[in-house]
Amino acid sequence: MGDMLQDLLPLIWTGAITGCLYAIGALGLVMIFKATRVVNFAHGNMAGLAAFVVYTLTAQGMGLGWALAVVAALGLVVVLALASYGVLAKVSERSDLRGTIGTLGVGLILQGATQVVFGADIVNLDLPVPRWGASVGGLRITSYDVTVLAVTTLVVGTLFVVIERTRLGIAFRAVSTNPFASRVCGLNLVAVQGVAWGVAAALGVIAALLIVPTTFLSSTTVAAFMLQSFAAAVLGGFSSLPGSILGGLVVGIAMNLFSYFVSPELNATFLLVLILVALNVFPGGILPQRGGGSRA
Amino acid sequence: MPDGMSVAEPVAMNVARRSRAWSRDAVLLLALALLPTTLGGFWVYGIGVCMANAMAVLSVSFLLRYGGEVSIGHSFFLALGAYTVAILERQAGVSVAIGLPVAALAGVLLGLGFAWPSRKLSGIYLAVATMALALAVPELILQLGPVAGGYEGLYVAKAPLPGIPLDLQRYYLPLVVLAMAVVLLRRFRHSRQGLALLTARDHPRAAEAFGFSRGFARLAAFAISAGIAAIAGALLAFSASTVSPNSYTLWTAIYLLVGSVISLSGLGLVAALVGGAFITLVPQLLAAWGDWVPILYGFALLVVVILGDRPAETLTKLRGRIGGGRHG
After folding, report:
1. Among A45, B47, B195, B201, which is least packed, fewest CB within 10 Å?
2. Structural domain count, chain A
3. Confidence class of residue B143 from pLDDT cuts 50, 70 and 90?
4. What are φ and ψ of residue B211, in 5° steps?
């Protein structure tokens, strides 16, 4: 029993850390869904492309600073997100389904572009933080963990202050609750939706840059990572921002426990079962909805 | 996507169009049936695989049309059909003639089980769940262990009919099954059940007043679609003669959707063959520029999605906007 607990605590800890990243990815998916009723299947491909841009810009030869490279990648991704939104806005107005198929098209293009430009290489992309680790009550906490926690707190905090306290946030909530009524009230629908797409894409990049150091970067890793974010979003009800954060933590911890105690070779199957169970048990998401999109 | 097909159509126009479609399909089928007499083995093989893929495209189109739902997980049902045939041949020594009906049944049952949790929710939840389904396929196949042949996969080489060369059977079985499927689907379109599914999709409240719930309609549409996909998988295993985990990835499923969207999700013979040929031949033709295939497919998806059901109108409108609004 004592052994079990000794295993359990670190597993929950590392699961929660990766869970934070799933949550950041899921926040982007949910923002786009709330603003435009589109499930963005290109989310992972876009973030993967950005990670490769950062890798190339910081590699020897280019020698750009890390921060500058990230800013460049964020800029590129925001432009791409706005372009996708521009292309798909009219389409998704007529039918959500068609908009969602459109995002698959965007995803395919970005995936192909990543392969054409950066090849099928597998590379390492680390964070520019000094390596250290400390033991706190039997838990080993590394600089990576602290970085992830700090970035997550900052990102989530800023996002919630903006959404709860600013005019832009109120506009976003209005548009996600009732686009027609918000347009009647004189809100600029296109601007609000565009901001949502841009912010969501940036969130995806942040999650990607933080997850890549734990594995490696290839043309498919980030897209595969986003499946966890999709599961987190579904757990949260797909239209609840707090729900998707909780969903991310649940997915992260559950995945970690599952792959340690059962099998690391059935991760995707576990996620599938998790999604199906969540749809059945929590059809409205694990947190109560505050309005702004029902599921049916 | 399925806005092009409505429950009610003017009857006279409908009859004329249908008889024209019948004769066109008959000519096409005859031509396909005669092809192996003039073409070499490579082409016969290739077109056989095209027809099996056409069946797979039909399954996705059926879901889009009758269920109004997107699936990027149909590689699961393809793999289910293919491995059912391969494993039955290996373990029980029976040919695709037994394997195919078993595969169809398994497809329908697992389709029901998969669609059950999201039956009352909007289509996007199903779409997300199908993505997880597709990603789980390769690891599930490997989990079957030596029965499924691991990474290398299995061969399918038992002829269902004695006395006819196997190569020809690999061509004619998909042809016959595809023809039957197209005929059945056309009858389904005007059957009570088909109309009920369409009503439930377009006018859920009206359908419910007739005692036909949207949830039931979605389950039915998904189960039939999964059954068609499993049959397609069985055909694909038989025509291509091998099955392996690499052939059933998320990409397979997305490409099926591309094939369906490219063929405007039609359920006729021509649409199915166009979709099947597109996803079979394009990767072959572009083998040297493999990385460009997703880009091409992505643009194809976007173009079809943007142009929509009435491409001519949309183009005129676009031209009008570009040309300074002369056309309206």
Report:
1. B195
2. 1
3. confident
4. 80, 30
